[in-house]
Amino acid sequence: MSQEINYDVIREIIRVSKAMEAAQLVNTYEGNLSIKEGGLLYITPARTRKSTLTEDLICVIDEEGRQIHGSKKSSSETIMHKRSYELRDDITAAIHCHSPYLTAHAMCHIPISAKCHPEILFHFKDIPVAPYGVPGTADIIDQAAPYLKERNLVLLGNHGVLSVGSTLEKAFQRVEAAEKMAKQLFIAKILGPTVDIPQSEIQRLMARPLEV
């Protein structure tokens, strides 16, 4: 039995994709976005500039792994997106990108665990780095799995970023916010040693459940 394609979902992927390119978080070769809805996986196509996406280009994969919509091949990271949804039943959207400051952390295997900025603790607690996994294979998500179960944004060692959420907009907001925070930390460390917020406040923020 064929499944009905939801064009509202397709349009949301196009909207966020274009917003991410405008923010210089994705480009033709880097970045892919997906939504899982109604048993179908909607995902951006491979090697396509996000600002030029149209409804006919968004790929839709059924539960048997068949591409039932989209005039181009799906992203090379389709496996990573599919496995992310298998790991977390509380998410419906995923974004993988190579935003500059976060990817620099991933390249250096330096997690973001600063205690000098309450917003980092409030929104992320910390941002871990998963070991290197081969791009385009299950290996990359297998390496990230232990971290993704506890966090909504994970750095992929030597590769980039994976952000998940209950909506695509929230996954996008996480990448956007984390990238800015990573940039702020970089500047702060040039100025001088950072100063932690009070320990009582750190404990309060770390104890807060993360929003999905």
Distinctive features:
212 residues, alpha+beta, L-fuculose-1-phosphate Aldolase, eight-stranded mixed β-sheet, 8 strands
Tell me what you see in this structure:
The chain has 212 residues and is an alpha+beta fold. The protein has a single domain (7-207), classed as Class II aldolase/adducin N-terminal domain (L-fuculose-1-phosphate Aldolase), CATH 3.40.225. Helix content is 40%, strand content 16%. It has 7 helices and 8 strands. It has helices at residues 7-22, 78-87, 100-108, 118-123, 138-148, 168-191, 199-207; strands at residues 32-37, 40-43, 59-61, 67-69, 93-97, 129-130, 153-156, 160-165. The chain has an 8-stranded mixed β-sheet, with helices on both faces. The longest helix has 24 residues, at 168-191. The radius of gyration is 17 Å and the shape is elongated. The model has no long low-confidence stretch (mean pLDDT 96).
Whole-number count of domains: 1
Uncertain residue segments? none
Note the beta-strand portion. Answer: 15-25%
Sheet with the most strands: spatial strand order: 4-3-2-1-5-8-7-6
Counted by DSSP, the helix tally is 7
What CATH architecture would you give? 3-Layer(aba) Sandwich
**Series of secondary-structure elements, N-terminal to C-terminal:** HEEEEHEHHEHEEHH
CATH C-level = Alpha Beta
- Would you tell me the structural class of the helices and strands? alpha+beta
Largest sheet: 8 strands, mixed
Fill in the CATH topology: L-fuculose-1-phosphate Aldolase
Total DSSP E strands: 8
CA-atom Rg in angstroms: 17 Å
Mean pLDDT: 96
What's the end-to-end separation, in Å?
32 Å
What is the 3D form? elongated
Name the CATH homologous superfamily: Class II aldolase/adducin N-terminal domain
Helix content: 40-55%
